[in-house]
């Protein structure tokens, strides 16, 4: 069985694939100081609740945008799964071209999403990933990663309003029924939510105009569902994009050697 670890700046996903389907998924807050042993204690309890144990996991793949965490995640795989993990950006062959000026700068999450989208959706794609940052990436029809746009995430923007302005409270993000806010909370929610809809629609329109050919837009990420039904610019909402890409990468690479 495969253990896929997808680590973002805010949350880390641990998912188990049995060769035919994903049978378990868990999330933890990302903490770069968490050791391999701490991960193991937490994960062993969740595995046990699902009727699993470390012994059935014989492969591991890691995608992380937090470089200081990779050491501990790698040690988790080595010590408790007894396998050398595939690490996106290090020892994993992605099987795609990265067509940007400095390919090493492309985030692991963006490349994994590119693969996860390309194997399902035909043609040229714009992949939107809404997390701590909101990324807009262009994937060519042959699967090549062409580059993209990085903007602050919606939660980051809301937190910045509260932190930088003394009189603005911390509020929950939700879809307002109207654009015109009648109080401070309503005005903040409208500005962030509808402002992000405008950001999404505007960048999609500009990317399509610059590319000059039809493009399919796919959205994923923890807060992407907030925009479902709020804009016609997004063609598909796909919450499994990232782990699908990780599974495909694991299949494109030979099984790593066991660690004793």
From TrEMBL:
GO terms for molecular function: ATP binding; metal ion binding; pantothenate kinase activity. A monovalent cation. Ammonium or potassium. It catalyses: (R)-pantothenate + ATP = (R)-4'-phosphopantothenate + ADP + H(+). It is found in: Cytoplasm. It comes from the Bacteria. InterPro entries: ATPase_NBD, Type_III_PanK. Pfam families: Pan_kinase. The active site is at residue 109. Its cofactor is NH4(+); K(+). The keyword Nucleotide-binding applies. GO terms for biological process: coenzyme A biosynthetic process. ATP binds at residues 6-13, 132. One of its GO terms (cellular component) is cytoplasm. Keywords: ATP-binding, Coenzyme A biosynthesis, Cytoplasm, Kinase, Metal-binding, Nucleotide-binding, Potassium, Transferase. Its EC number is 2.7.1.33. Its main location: cytoplasm. Pathway: Cofactor biosynthesis; coenzyme A biosynthesis; CoA from (R)-pantothenate: step 1/5. Substrate binds at residues 107-110, 184. Belongs to the type III pantothenate kinase family. PANTHER family: TYPE III PANTOTHENATE KINASE. Homodimer. This is Type III pantothenate kinase. The gene is coaX.
């Amino acid at each position: 069985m495969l253990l896929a670890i997808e680590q973002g700046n805010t949350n880390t996903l641990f998912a188990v694939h049995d060769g035919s389907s994903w049978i378990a998924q868990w999330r933890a807050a990302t903490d770069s100081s968490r050791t391999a042993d701490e991960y193991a204690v937490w994960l062993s309890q969740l595995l046990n609740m699902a009727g699993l144990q470390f012994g059935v996991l014989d492969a591991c793949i890691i995608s992380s945008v937090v470089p200081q965490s990779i050491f501990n995640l790698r040690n988790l795989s080595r010590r408790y799964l007894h396998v050398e993990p595939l690490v996106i950006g290090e020892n994993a062959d992605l099987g795609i071209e990265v067509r940007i000026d400095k390919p090493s700068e492309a985030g692991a999450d963006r490349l994994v999403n590119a693969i996860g989208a390309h194997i399902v959706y035909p043609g040229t794609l714009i992949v939107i990933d809404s997390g701590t940052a909101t990324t807009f990436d262009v994937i060519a029809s042959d699967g090549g990663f062409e580059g993209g746009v990085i903007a602050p995430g919606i939660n980051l923007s809301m937190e910045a309003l509260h932190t930088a302005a003394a009189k603005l409270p911390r509020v929950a993000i939700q879809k307002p029924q109207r654009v015109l806010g009648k109080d401070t909370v309503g005005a903040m929610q409208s500005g962030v939510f509808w402002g992000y809809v405008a950001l999404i629609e505007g960048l999609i329109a500009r990317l399509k105009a610059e590319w000059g050919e039809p493009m399919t837009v796919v959205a994923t990420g923890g807060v992407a569902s907030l925009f479902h039904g709020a804009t016609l610019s997004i063609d598909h909402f796909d919450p499994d994009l990232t782990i699908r890409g990780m599974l495909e990468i694991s299949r494109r690479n030979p099984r790593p050697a066991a660690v004793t």
